[in-house]
Amino acid sequence: MTLLKAFISGCAGETLTDDEWRFFQDERPAGFILFARNIRTPEQVKALIAKVQDAIGRDELLVLVDQEGGRVQRLKPPTWRQLPSGAAFGLRYASDPKEAIAAAKAVSQLAARDLAALGFTVNCVPVLDLPVPGSHQVIGDRAYGSDVERVVALGRAVCEGTLAGGLLPVIKHMPGHGRANQDSHLALPVIEDGFDILKETDFATFRALNDMPLGMTGHVLVTALDEHECASTSPFVVASVIRGNIGFDGLLMCDDLSMKALRGSTGDKARRAIAAGCDVVLHCNGNLEEMQDVAANVPELEGEAERRYLSALKRRKPAAAFDATQALAYLDEINALGQTLTAQA
Questions:
Q1: Are the C-beta atoms of residues 160 and 317 closer than 8 Å to each other?
Q2: What is the DSSP letter of 193?
Q3: Is the pLDDT of residue 269 over 50?
Q4: Annotation marks residue 193 as catalytic
Q5: Whole-angstrom Cα distance, residue 58 to residue 21?
Q6: In this model, does residue 1 exceed pLDDT 50?
Q7: 150 to 131, 271, 295: CA distances (angstroms)
Q8: What is the 3-state secondary structure (H, E, C) of 106-158?
Q9: What's the first-to-final CA gap in the chain, in angstroms?
Q10: Which end of the chain is more exposed for a tag (fewer CB within 10 A), N or C?
Q11: Catalytic residue among 255, 256, 279, 293
Q12: Cα(188)–Cα(289) distance, rounded to whole angstroms?
């Protein structure tokens, strides 16, 4: 028995307050996630992660960050490397798929090694969503492309590079956020496409990478699946689509409970996501009162959730040897393509 609870939490600032220390010590979340507000210097980040691990009483813990590249990058220049957007890798794939795959793997491994040196154990990549014309730009250039083959090839390379760099990847946002008509940070997106279309497109990218250790739901209402509950809180979507059609058996976390796509109190959102079949819930904004509400409404990790958690931790291995010179060359090349895309936007 791990005695950890089924949630992942953030904190408010660059250090833990006394109240936050007591919260982590008492509630023992299964993971910790950092955002830009928590990050100043490498030494400070290492100290913050170590403090949380000490409070929870466990060195082996999921320590997450969103370091996708492009506009979603919590550790920023000049202290840390600028990483390319998913779309920049997609542009390279259009001209040379083999080189694009090699670049995605090498750059992801480089990024993972940098993060592992700070104490992170998870990078929340890859984005496997498929944007369509007219959809909201919340995904946009975070995606590797709009066709299944390209997204699967580059997503697989990013996963392999992340694992080779000593971190765990997270496939997101199941069952697919690319068709969303709203930013789920601000409102509930509604997707009205039929099941037959979705299973061959949106679901297919996740199905191809269903062997990955960690996955994240998207706060999207897919009316063909559930007319009332979004994916994160829908028992049907979790059981029949994510676990069923997609075939994902890794540790499933919901997207951030702080997002406005979900209705109700924070504790109610947490309870509904767990009841739907998520193994753990994710709460990111660092509001201690909300964190306490989450902790009061989730169970300890046990049963299948505990099995998946421990199985995920076992997938993390020491960083493998790689050609850093080649990785840096790829990084420069793909960043230059990213600048081209930005100039064209």
A1: no
A2: -
A3: yes
A4: no
A5: 14
A6: no
A7: 13, 36, 39
A8: HHHHHHHHHHHCCCCCEECCCECCCCCCCCCCCCHHHCCCCCHHHHHHHHHHH
A9: 51
A10: N
A11: 255
A12: 24
